[in-house]
Write a structure and sequence with these properties.
Length: 205
């Protein structure tokens, strides 16, 4: 059944996320270092300023609050509340919990040359900015059924741009942002599984 495929995909992505965290916990990979050195060598002051402004606008707390307010406002106007309507909110809250626990558990040190290191003192893996932007996109997919291909493309572009920005200012290693994407995809599929389960249950009832 389709819901079990969602569950399998969710588990697979979360396992990859966890394995990657274990792999990079002890330090950056050679590719991580190469990417960090490239960005440090070629970034310009204007690029850094733009990236830092975008960084401030996509702070995990702001993304979480904005997404929750939009979801609650949308639900308020439907005048009906069902358990399935809380799935997108559960996705956002779940992402916050996983990011917090993962950062403490893996406790990976951030790049030492980061321009953002002065206000990013928490552990590096995973990137909260990338995770929350990707998860917010997942919430959009759960509540909006129109123009799916365009919506997915837009979410991918914004997520990749956020990852690029975090690398540009030196706040994260490359594997941090990759891990965040696996985590967000895994949580999204878990929520799709729950959504399918609740939908089938409502049909039976």
């Amino acid at each position: 059944m389709r819901k079990y495929l969602y569950l399998l995909l969710g588990l697979l992505n979360i396992i990859i996320f966890g394995e990657l965290g274990y792999f990079v916990k002890s330090g950056p990979t050679a590719f991580d270092s190469t990417v960090a050195e490239w960005f440090e060598s070629y970034r310009t002051p204007v690029e850094v300023q733009v990236a830092q402004i975008y960084n401030a606008l996509t702070t995990p707390a702001l993304v979480l609050i904005a997404a929750c307010m939009i979801l609650l406002f949308r639900q308020y106007w439907t005048r009906a509340w069902y358990l399935i309507d809380f799935v997108p909110l559960a996705l956002m809250v779940g992402a916050g919990g996983v990011v917090t626990v993962a950062k403490s558990f893996f406790d990976r040190v951030r790049p030492g040359s980061g321009l953002a290191i002065q206000f990013d003192l928490e552990p590096s893996f995973p990137s909260g900015h990338v995770a929350f932007v990707a998860v917010a996109g997942g919430c959009l997919l759960l509540v909006y059924s129109g123009k799916r291909a365009l919506t997915v493309l837009l979410i991918m572009l914004i997520t990749v741009f956020t990852a690029f920005e975090r690398l540009l200012v030196g706040a994260h290693w490359f594997t941090d942002v990759v891990g965040s994407m696996f985590m967000a995809i895994g949580l999204f599929y878990f929520m799709k599984f729950i959504e399918e389960f609740l939908t089938e249950r409502e049909r039976v009832m």
